Amino acid sequence: xxxxxxxxxxxxxxxxxVRCISCESEQIVFSHCSTHVQCQTCGExxxxxxxxxxxxxxxxxxxxx
Length: 65
Prior knowledge:
- The chain is mainly β.
- It contains 1 helix and 6 strands; from the N terminus they run αββββββ.
- A 3-stranded antiparallel beta sheet has the order 2-1-6, with no helix packed on it. A 3-stranded antiparallel beta sheet has the order 3-4-5, with no helix packed on it.
- A hairpin with a 6-residue loop joins strand 1 and strand 2.
- The longest helix is centred in the first third of the chain and has 6 residues.
- The protein starts with a helix and ends with a strand.
- The relative contact order is 0.28.
């Protein structure tokens, strides 16, 4: 079974729980998002796309999945 874990690739993208710097509210963001993600409460930018991994502007609280 250990051989199969090396042969089958795992995804590197994750969902992140991000805390807004301005209003301290939390939101779930995809790590490789392709659009700008704004805070639902204050409108501050939480993540910007970079063509691969997103540039996370807030504080990452937890990695989900």
